[in-house]
Design goal:
Number of helices: 11
Order of helices and strands: HHEEHEHHEEEEHHEHEEEHEHHE
Structural class: alpha+beta
Helix content: 25-40%
Shape: globular
Strand order of the largest sheet: 8-3-5-4-12
Largest sheet: 5 strands, antiparallel
Distance between the termini: 22 Å
């Protein structure tokens, strides 16, 4: 029986050819992502042998790569993160705000991921905080969770931030909770223009400081005159900032966060076929009411697009803003709860890794798949040679 298709299978079938064809332009981060996904849950990473205490079934349990770009390694991390966020929810409406970079700015971001993605976060955060601080709009310190996505449905480079924002904030003296108007967070046109101004000012500062690098089709932007012309063009267009209607309640907020956090460019479930050197995957065409379609790409192009979304080592794709910022989140949330007369959630009870995994993901790691008995670890499995391509793979 043909196994379920995974991104790892595509890398194992066509990864070596891709490495040869793109050796001059393939960076260390991208090579590590490919190697990690190829090795995930295979003998390459070692593991342990388990045996059922009831029926005697023996199975090999191989280690996960835990790379944040791997489609198979985000389930538990996502569930643990969501549980922590659930304990922080306030009894107020929540809004979803999206900040998108125009294509000419996205090109610069792709060549300077660490610098420009960081500017994107800071500009969006400061734009929301500046407008919210203004008494004409809200007059309060807000909080937000911002999540970086760099892809669209067809895997092209499309950097944007998804922000989840409580509908209100703390007054300047910290004595009142200031609520948004019903169904309205902040004026998006004002927010968009402030975001554009802040982003371009920081991008200009990065250029002057020599922090930006340009090559290939963007090599001309290394000249100050050409870069200034690009900035002028970006100032002349409207930037997209989109604020959706408030969520129906905390459960909907968490459901949304579960879809958008710890995501990778494409889930294995969207892959439908790998044959004749081509990959088929499903995508939603939002220009046609979200209709599901199938896209076919050459394996080389599919791998190239997937790797467009590898982020630099140590770069945080999820960030907390305002009163939700890490350095004072606990104290500020306690103050918000007091002002809103909301109860403090109970701390989680201690539990084992297996119990936590079962509760959060629904997967019981220690249950025998044959008889339902308890699987017990018998000993380690040493690391072995990297896995070969699947027997059904066409690597042409």
């Amino acid at each position: 029986m043909r196994p379920t298709l995974e991104v790892a299978d595509i890398f194992r079938c066509h990864g070596e050819a891709f490495r040869r064809n793109h050796a001059a332009h393939l960076g260390r981060v991208e090579r590590r992502v490919m190697a990690a996904i190829e090795a995930c849950r295979t003998p390459t990473l070692g593991g342990h042998v388990e045996q059922c205490g009831d029926c005697g079934l023996v199975r090999c349990a191989y280690n996960s790569c835990r790379n944040r770009h791997c489609p198979k390694c985000q389930g538990l991390a996502r569930a643990e993160w969501l549980e922590a966020r659930q304990a922080e929810l306030l009894p107020v409406p929540y809004y979803h705000v999206v900040f998108t970079l125009p294509a000419p700015a996205a090109e610069i971001a792709f060549h300077n991921k660490r610098v420009v993605y960081a500017i994107l976060f800071r500009a969006a955060a400061d734009a929301m905080r500046n407008i919210a601080d203004d008494p004409r709009h809200l007059g309060a310190e807000i909080g937000a969770i911002a999540v970086l996505h760099t892809w669209g449905q067809t895997l092209q480079h499309h950097p944007h931030l998804h922000c989840i924002v409580p509908g209100g904030g703390l007054s300047a003296d910290g004595m009142r909770w200031v609520a948004c108007r019903p169904g309205f967070f902040l004026p998006v046109r004002v927010l968009s223009r402030r975001f554009r101004t802040l982003f371009l000012a920081r991008l200009q500062a990065a250029f002057v400081a020599g922090e930006l690098r340009f090559s290939g089709t963007l090599a001309a932007l290394a000249e100050p005159a050409a870069f200034a012309e690009r900035l002028d063009a970006l100032r002349a267009v409207e930037w997209v900032v989109y604020a959706k209607r408030p969520f129906a309640g905390p459960a909907q907020v968490l459901a949304y966060l579960g879809r958008y956090t710890h995501r990778v460019a494409l889930a294995n479930s969207r892959l439908t076929r790998l044959a004749n050197g081509q990959v088929d995957f499903t995508w939603k065409d939002y220009r046609h009411h979200g209709k599901t379609k199938v896209m076919t790409l050459a394996a080389d192009e599919f791998i190239r697009r997937f790797l467009l979304h590898a982020v630099p080592d140590g770069f945080h794709r999820i960030r907390h803003i305002g009163f939700l910022a890490n350095r004072h989140r606990t104290a500020k949330l306690a103050l918000c709860r007091a002002l809103l007369a909301a109860p403090t959630p109970d701390p989680p009870a201690p539990e084992s890794y297996r119990d936590r995994t079962r509760r959060l993901t629904g997967h019981a790691l220690d249950v025998c798949p044959d008889c339902g008995g308890t699987m017990q670890a018998c000993g380690p499995l040493p690391r072995r040679a990297p896995p070969r391509a699947p027997f059904w793979c066409d690597s042409s």
